[in-house]
Amino acid sequence: MNSGTFRIWRGDANTGEFRDYTTEVSEGMVVLDAVHRIQATQANDLACRWNCKAGKCGSCSAEINGLPRLMCMTRLNELPLEKPVTIEPMKAFPPVKDLVTDVSWNFHVKKKIRKFKPRAPDAPDGTWRMAQSDIDRVQEFRKCIECYLCQDVCHVLRDHHKHDEFIGPRFLIYAAALEMHPLDTEDRLLELKQAHGIGYCNITKCCTKVCPESITITDNAIIPLKERVVDEHYDPLGWLWKLARKALKKN
Ligand code: SF4
Ligand code: SF4
Ligand code: FES
User: Fold this and answer.
1) Looking at the CA of 206, which ligand is closest?
2) How many helices, marked H, and strands, marked E, lie in the chain?
3) ∠ CA 119-120-124 to the nearest 5 degrees?
4) From ligand 3's centre to the CA of 227, what distance in Å?
5) Contact 150, 210 (CB under 8 A)
6) How far is Cα 140 from Cα 142, in angstroms, rounded to an integer?
7) 50 phi and psi angles, rounded to 5 deg
8) Res. 236: pLDDT tops 90
9) Residue 153: nearest ligand to its CA?
10) Could you tell me the pLDDT band of residue 238, with boundaries at 50, 70 and 90?
11) Does 145 contact ligand 2 (Cβ within 6 A)?
């Protein structure tokens, strides 16, 4: 059996430091296994959040060698074990203890987005008719496990701390899933432009690169949403067309 050294952030909301722990590593281990082994043998008070160990609950998000990743899906044989593996909490959210951050801001943001509002049923039995292609389009966005790694990597939140003005990539895909839903009748475009700060996104695609569910966040969600916002709230020809339509309806 080999060994590896893990440089883990230990601290609370105010202060902290990296500490090195050397532990045995064996074939098939992931970073979360190493953290658990260190917890069991050397640091019983080491705080980390996890639930499924299968990449599905979104709890074990951290920064491993500087990259936002799920600890349970990062295999040790992918990492250079000849040097210490750094493990630290996500930087875009307030630290609580060790690897645990307070991600509650995300839940408050979600509540601010207008809910699904379906049109009236298409048939007397209360059912709807939808094209499969329309369903397929939003299905990708529903794979999100709310790990918030995309929020963590986004420079608007991470470096510029625009948490009050920008909802972040996770909630832009949430809004896209609603806006592009074939039954939805709600209009979220003005809020996306104003309160939700979609203009802050400069399409760097960093969020897409870290998503463990491989959701094409930027190309499939954010860019189409930006186009809709521009069409609706900036495009002068669009405005003229809407005014003309309103006038025609009145006459
Ligand atoms: S593409 Fe936009 S939302 Fe994604 S990380 Fe870059 S700025 Fe943030
Ligand atoms: S979009 Fe991807 S990275 Fe972002 S919260 Fe969802 S699963 Fe995580
Ligand atoms: S423990 Fe559930 S995603 Fe890692």
Assistant:
1) 1
2) 10, 7
3) 150
4) 34
5) yes
6) 5
7) -165, 160
8) no
9) 1
10) low
11) yes
pLDDT digits (tens, 9 = 90+) for 166-179: 999 999 999 999 99
Neighbours of 202 (CB within 10 A): 8
Average pLDDT, the chain: 95
pLDDT at 248 > cutoff 80: no
Ligand 1 mean position, distance from CA 80 (Å): 28
147 in contact with ligand 2, CB cutoff 6 A: yes
Structure confidence at residue 232 as a pLDDT band (50, 70, 90) = confident
Q: Residue written as tokens 């999100």?
A: 144
Q: Could you tell me if the CB of 154 is within 6 A of ligand 1?
A: yes
d(CA 92, CA 147): 13
Contact 35 CB / ligand 3 (< 6 Å) = no
- pLDDT, position 234: 77
Q: What are phi and psi of 203, to 5 degrees?
A: 55, 40
DSSP letter at 121 equals P
Is it the case that residue 213 has pLDDT exceeding 60?
A: yes
Residue 84 φ then ψ, to 5°: -60, 140
pLDDT band at 233 (very low <50, low <70, confident <90, very high): confident
Cα 124 to middle of ligand 2, angstroms: 38
